[in-house]
């Protein structure tokens, strides 16, 4: 039976470091040995300071690295940021400063190798360092996610897809969140991180996972060796049916969910956590999905007062649905597949998903039927 441990915590390093050591010690069960190559995989989405709650906090990364060093193993901290240069991410996030004095390799994933994650995706390109690590310590942030509802332990491993291959996968799986969740679960299972600690001390609510989300203090650290069990437990804490999280549902369908989870610690129910408005209104025959997507599903919309016309969103739009003009950016909603990569990667939080007129009407009708 998988075990989930919860601790009340803060970013005070004197309190945090022994808690991380304790968590890792109790879930490690001998994975980390002398000279093991240990990959520490935080969420390093984009350059952002700790108070924005976009990235795993630098002190959680430091404490995990210190634990690995104390075991005589060899830590490597890596990710493939969704946007921005890796060096900029570790500078702006305070990670470089936090690692001061430690002899640690902190480097971007660069090379990918083909890796079989099983059907229906089979061989896909995954970061070589992740494939070759003896142990993976997975350090996700507890955040909302406009397309996937939340990004937690399972989704964090998507960072092991290197560079522009990430938006490519978003494009290939389109707005089919269930198919994308299936991909995430397969990547998670193939990489099998040994230990996962979720940073829920300063979490994110609202329109995450980027700058449009709102930091929310929860003061929670959660650890376990089974990230699916952790993700299910987070949903329970937030008062959400666990199967509303696409990755949980996909994990259940794939037979990766244990019926019982052993829980240790104080598990509060958080009542006022704001979720993003997600769930594209796609239903009915597949033939109609294109039409429905265009007219009913929330669209990315810019706030011209915030947009700086940097053009970053264009890089992530594999559908080529965005153009930048002198007067602002514009979207071709017929081409747009509603993957929301542009919202996720806009460095200024200038984009949000907005309900269409007809989508709003249908949502209200459905809501009335269910209440
Ligand atoms: S929406 Fe964001 S990413 Fe796109 S041009 Fe404006 S500021 Fe840049
Ligand atoms: S415009 Fe945004 S949401 Fe639409 S396809 Fe491009 S990146 Fe995805």
Question: Which descriptors apply to this entry?
Answer:
alpha/beta; 371 residues; Alpha-Beta Plaits; 14 helices; two-stranded antiparallel sheet; 2 domains
Largest sheet: number of strands, sense, barrel closure: 8 strands, mixed
Distance between the termini: 36 Å
- Which class of the largest domain in CATH terms? Alpha Beta
Q: Which distinct ligands sit in these coordinates?
A: iron/sulfur cluster
Number of individual domains:
2
Descriptive account of the structure:
This protein has 14 helices and 16 strands. It is an alpha/beta fold and 371 residues long. The chain folds into two domains: 3-264, Rossmann fold, CATH 3.40.50; 286-365, Alpha-Beta Plaits. The strands form five sheets. An eight-stranded mixed sheet has the order 4-3-2-7-10-11-1-12. A hairpin with a 6-residue loop joins β5 (112-116) and β6. α8 crosses α10. The structure holds iron/sulfur cluster (2 copies). One iron/sulfur cluster (SF4) binds next to α12. One iron/sulfur cluster is lined by residues 300, 316-317, 319, 321-322, 331, 336-342.
Task: Spell out the blueprint of helices and strands.
Blueprint: E1 3-8, H1 13-28, E2 37-42, H2 58-70, E3 74-77, H3 86-92, H4 95-98, E4 105-106, E5 112-116, E6 123-127, H5 128-132, E7 135-139, E8 143-145, E9 149-151, H6 153-156, H7 165-173, H8 177-191, E10 195-206, E11 213-224, H9 227-237, H10 246-253, E12 262-264, H11 289-296, E13 299-302, H12 312-316, E14 322-325, E15 328-331, H13 341-345, E16 351-354, H14 357-370
Parallel strand pairs: 1-12, 2-3, 2-7, 3-4, 7-10
Antiparallel strand pairs: 1-11, 5-6, 8-9, 10-11, 13-16, 14-15
């Amino acid at each position: 039976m998988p075990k989930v441990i919860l601790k009340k915590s803060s970013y005070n390093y004197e309190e945090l470091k022994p808690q991380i050591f304790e968590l890792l010690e109790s879930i490690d069960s001998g994975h980390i040995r002398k000279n093991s190559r240990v990959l520490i995989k935080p969420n390093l989405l984009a350059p952002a300071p700790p108070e924005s709650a976009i990235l795993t906090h630098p002190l959680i990364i430091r404490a995990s690295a210190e634990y690995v060093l104390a075991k005589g193993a060899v830590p490597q901290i890596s990710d493939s940021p969704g946007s921005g240069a890796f060096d900029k991410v570790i500078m702006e996030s305070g990670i470089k400063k936090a690692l001061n004095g430690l002899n640690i390799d902190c480097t971007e994933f660069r090379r990918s190798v083909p890796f079989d994650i099983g059907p229906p995706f089979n061989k896909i390109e995954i970061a070589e360092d992740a494939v070759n690590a003896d142990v993976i310590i997975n350090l996700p942030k507890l955040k909302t996610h406009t397309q996937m509802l939340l990004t937690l332990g399972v989704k964090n491993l998507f960072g092991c897809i290197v560079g522009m291959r990430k938006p490519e996968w978003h494009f290939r799986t389109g707005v089919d969140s269930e198919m994308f969740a299936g991909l995430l679960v397969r990547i998670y299972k193939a990489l099998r991180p040994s230990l996962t600690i979720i940073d829920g001390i300063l979490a994110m609510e609202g329109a995450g996972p980027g700058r449009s989300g709102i930091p929310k203090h929860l003061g929670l650290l959660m650890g376990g060796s089974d990230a699916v069990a952790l993700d299910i437990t987070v949903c329970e804490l937030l008062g959400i049916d666990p199967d509303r999280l696409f990755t949980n549902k996909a994990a259940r369908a794939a037979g990766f969910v244990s019926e019982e989870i052993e829980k240790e610690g104080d598990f509060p129910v958080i009542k006022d956590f704001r979720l993003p408005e997600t769930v594209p209104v796609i239903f009915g025959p597949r033939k109609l999905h294109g039409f429905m997507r265009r007219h009913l599903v929330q669209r990315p919309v810019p706030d011209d007062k915030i947009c700086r016309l940097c053009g970053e969103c264009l890089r992530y739009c594999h559908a080529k649905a965005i153009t930048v003009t002198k007067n602002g950016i514009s979207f071709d909603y017929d081409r747009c597949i509603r993957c929301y990569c542009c919202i996720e990667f806009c460095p200024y939080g200038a984009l949000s998903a907005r309900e269409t007129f007809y989508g709003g009407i249908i949502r209200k009708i459905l809501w009335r039927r269910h209440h």
